[in-house]
Amino acid sequence: MSSIDIAGEPEREGFNIRWGDLAPFIALAVIIILGALINSNFLSANNLLNVVTRSAFIAIIGVGATFVIATGGLDLSVGSMMAFVTGVMILSMNAMAPSLGSWAIVAGAGIALVVGALCGLLNGLIITVGRIEPFIVTLGTMGIFRAFMSDGGSLPIDRSLRDPYRPVYFGDFLGVPYPVLITIVVTLIGAFLLYRTKFGRRTIAVGSNADVARFSGVHVGRVRTMAFVIQGFCVGVAAICYVPRLGAATPTTGQLWELQVITAVVIGGTLLRGGKARVWGTVAGALILEIIANVMVLSDMVSEYLVAAVQGAIIIAMLAHRFTSTR
Amino acid sequence: MSITNTGARIMSAAFVSAALTGAPAMAQDKEFTIAVSIPAATHGWTGGVVYHAEQAEKQIEAAFPNIDVIVSTASSATAQVSSLEDLSATNDLDALVILPFTSEELTGPVDQVASNGTFITVVDRGLSDPSIQDLYVAGDNIAVGANTAKWLVDKLGGEGQIVVLRGIPTVIDDERIQGFTDVIETSEIEILDIQYANWNQDEAFTLMQDYLARYDKIDAVWANDDDMLLGVLEAIDQAGREDVKFALGGNGMKQVIEMVKAGDERTPISTPYPPSMIASAIYMTAAQFAGQAPMRGSFKLDAPLITPENADQFYFPDSPF
Amino acid sequence: MVQPVHSDASNSALTARALFKSYGQIEVLRDITLDIRAGEIHAIIGENGAGKSTLMKVLSGHATPTTGQLYMGGVQVRFADSVQAEAAGIVLVHQEILLAPDLTVAQNLFLGRELSRGPMVDDRAMNRRTAEVLARVGSTARPTDRVGDRPLAQRQLIQIARALLDERKVVILDEPKATLASDEVESLIGIVRNLRDQGVAVLYISHRLEEVEALADRVTVLRDGDMIGTWRSGELDQRQMAEQMVGRKLEMLYPPKRGVATADPVLEVTQLSVDGGKFAGSFSVRPGEVLGIGGMIGAGRTELFEGLMGLRPSHSERIMLNGRSIASPDVGRMMEAGLVYLTEDRKGKGLLLNDRMGANLTLQALDTLNPGMQLDRKGETRALVNAVKEYDIRVRSLGIEVGKLSGGNQQKLLLAKVMMTDPSVVIIDEPTRGIDIGNKGQIYRFIDDLVRAGKACVVISSELPELVGLADRVLVMRGGRFVAELMGDDITEQNVVYAAASSGKDGAGRKVT
Questions:
Q1: Distance from CA of A240 to the nearest CA of C (A)
Q2: Other C-beta atoms within 10 Å of C497: how many?
Q3: What is the pLDDT of residues A128-138, one digit of tens each?
């Protein structure tokens, strides 16, 4: 028997694996240090709170996307879904405001979660029952969700709800803004689901090798669908945080967010082909994206015409490193 | 030739009522088709364009049963080219009213339609070759920037520090910024920073937060667009910054005009760049056929300041914009 | 390139002398000396893995020998690749169909060597030449037909036609993978004879002994990379061929057999039909019994049992498992009722190579190990420590990625994985594929222990000694059906090969219906 020398070993191996997983957090730290060197205002409490708070939307949706991508799927519809969910939420809140008063906000939030989850379910069922590529399906639903929101201008919430709802974005608890708290809670739940439950195990298995999962008795379609439902639910949570900020849904709500979300997930260390998921890495990825944009504005290094190009170059550099090092 | 926006409105209103009373009888015997090709409502302003185009369609079709107005929206320049092809293939067009996505890409396709003898009305963005159009109706983007800048120079006493938000890199944005900066440069006012926020309320909010974090003293901010202005105002309110004396936009959005009417101190003015110009263009084109009124030439809508005194004239509560 | 070196070979079209071929440490061909004469049909036979395909590749330039020489007409030749071999007149017709389905027959035949007239492709000339070649192989296809529209067997003929487009000295026919109908087999035999009569040397790879007996002028037998010998037609009958293919004695690798199992069957399958009837059969297995499933590659063994697990579309009259009737099988339901299946495709369908051992071990048994939704991670570590001990998985660290384990350790982990739910019936597909002899012996002992503990085991194996050494009873499959059942002393390699490869009408063992 050769199992005697096993006991002491796992930790060392575990330590080696963790180094790779730390990469996004190291990148985050480096960008924060660079930001501080470029402009002292960067480290001001106000600026940091602003940046962290506004990265909440991408982070929250990104947690859901981590599940979808971990199963080997892709959801291009999240930005449009965001617009759709905020639209439905505002319309229903406005309709309930006269009878329910401020409780309309709570009811509206519930509706946002349900509508989001249903949108995800729709995506998941078309993909698994129809056996169509996620890329194609969500490209389609991207147009469908957006179409419901582009029949006019912006859609503001009822005046009577504006003030009671505003603190959900602008308020804080012991100095921590609510969107940040909500992000932490969502991420904790996400991490629990992914790393500590049977469902999480199966999610990774399906993304890692769907055949192995199938041969091991995992209901692959069910797991994939569930991942999309979680994604939709996260969009609902993000919508709840988003609406109080500007008090309206506009035709540009959620525009191109799908790409930011996917970028954040990939920067965070989740494999785009599935089978490896890093929930906290996704949050770090969302912060990195938001901080890069913030540092760009705070610095004088590039003209306004080149900001987008420089951001793109930084992201490519970061991901190129990731992909070459994992090969 | 230049007429004011209000002038155009009064004229078309007069024309509609005149037509309702007597004129139709002689035009009844021939059917006319007017196609309207506009961008889809992907932004507050284009949302307004769609709304006003649909209103004009209803009114004209009600007043003139022999005129058929077809409104077609497109979400990109390519889609607009395709929809032009579809419109001219399936209908015998007497007139085309078009708000082109881009000048360069649409010039050829519009020329193609014009070669069939169709009457061409171009709105807002000009074509590369102006000889194609019979009628041109546009706002004055340079004036939007310049009039705002003049007001600001006056109110700030010719000095101070301001920040500017740009839209999406296009001719419209370039002209507005050019009109604005040309006037500002004549004063002692310093433009601290100027960045793109893509006519997107969320991005404007984010950018303004960053401006406020970076600059301790900002006397005024010009958002160049009322959609973006709403995001800017949220950011200023959140930061609780009292130093920002003026936050101005442009385009005459409904919510902003309400603020102007209410005498808001921080946003006391706006400048019109009314999406209803599409309605003016459709009425004028219809007049060419039903009213026997020659309607050729260029009409540039002025961009006078909207102030609490005249705000009512620019306020359309039912419009989405 | 052709190098003029004199040799003593006479009228042979192609001569191989002392060929050795190794892949890394593994020798797949040892000291092969063979000559193939113009105007003969020369059959090469051997078990799966005997080295037939490697020999074909070496002779046709698709692989280079590690040592040894090739001669053509007494002149030594060396091929860097198959293009040089084809230029010298040697062509290999592949098992797999390598044709572009959307191109026409003529376009496929001339793919990469289109005839042209000036800058234009000369379709007329190509179609004319194609028609000639098609007629020669007896194909009814027209040059302008789209290949994808032709049935599979027709495509096989088109592929042969493609090989015959140019003048050939040696044609090597690897065994057709597509199942040919009997008239298509006739036409193939016709082509082969036709080629021989034109003076071409035909090398014919097959494991269908009846065909070999009917067709070949000479037969060469390979076994485990060695050349056993060459016989003239008529010197060996089908049974003797099978004996030469198998040859060796049983090693002491296998635990002694248990007595005959008499308990009532734990699993009874009646009229199982998989993939719309392509694979079908009935069988049962008793506690304390190893049921072996034999047959050639492609006989449909894996497909049938995947169908039983609900991994392929299937239906059945009745499946009784531990006294329970299973209406619509799936892996989870079968596992609950006490049946598990260990796949032959360890890396593709068995293990998550990028994941840790613990996650792999428990994947199938998650519901059994964790009653709630939360994972019992301590329990998982305990289970892993136990499995490592029990199945003797040798690793430096428990956190290692499974892809980094050796094949033998992977196989033991996979065995541990399917055993997590303590099943009463285990189906093991190719229990020792690609693992070394030491691990093989261990796995055989696990199987023996299992069965002695009163479980039932079904072993699907292409390794004849394994079947003979392990099984108490053997069912042989051919063409998607069980064709023979062997018991007791009748379980010999010769009998299995004979049942699997011949038409089986006069075979030993009872014919199963």
A1: 28
A2: 26
A3: 999 999 999 99
